[in-house]
Amino acid sequence: MDTLLIILVLGAIALGVAVWIARRSKPTRPPEQQMDQDTAWNDRVKPDTPSDETPKS
Q1: Per-residue pLDDT, 20
Q2: Which of 30, 28, 10, 12 shows the shortest CA–CA distance to 20?
Q3: Assign residue 40 a region: left if phi > 0, alpha if psi is -120 to 50, beta otherwise?
Q4: How far apart are CA 52 and CA 45, in angstroms?
Q5: Number of helical (H) and strand (E) elements in the chain, helices listed first
Q6: 10-residue block means of pLDDT along the chain (57 residues)?
Q7: For residues 10 and 16, what is the distance between their CA atoms, to the nearest angstrom?
C-alpha cells in the first residue's frame, strides 16, 4: 500500500509539472493582436432610445 501511495504522489507531481510547463511555453501573440482586443461582445444590440418606427395615421 505504501508503494502505491508513493507512485500515485509521484505521478501527480509529474502531471502537475507537465501541465505547468505546457502552459508556460505557449507562444506569445504578435503585437498587432495585443493592441486592440475590444470585440464589443457586451454592447447593446438595440439602442436605448426608442426608434420612430410607429406608423403615423
Answers
A1: 92
A2: 12
A3: left
A4: 17
A5: 2, 0
A6: 95 96 76 65 66 59
A7: 10
Tell me if residue 14 falls in helix, strand or coil.
helix
Q: How far is it, in rounded angstroms, from Cα 44 to Cα 46?
A: 6
Residue 38's identity, in one-letter code, is: D
For the question of whether the overall pTM of this predicted structure is more than 0.90, the answer is no
Residue recorded with cell 508556460? 24
pLDDT at 57: 56
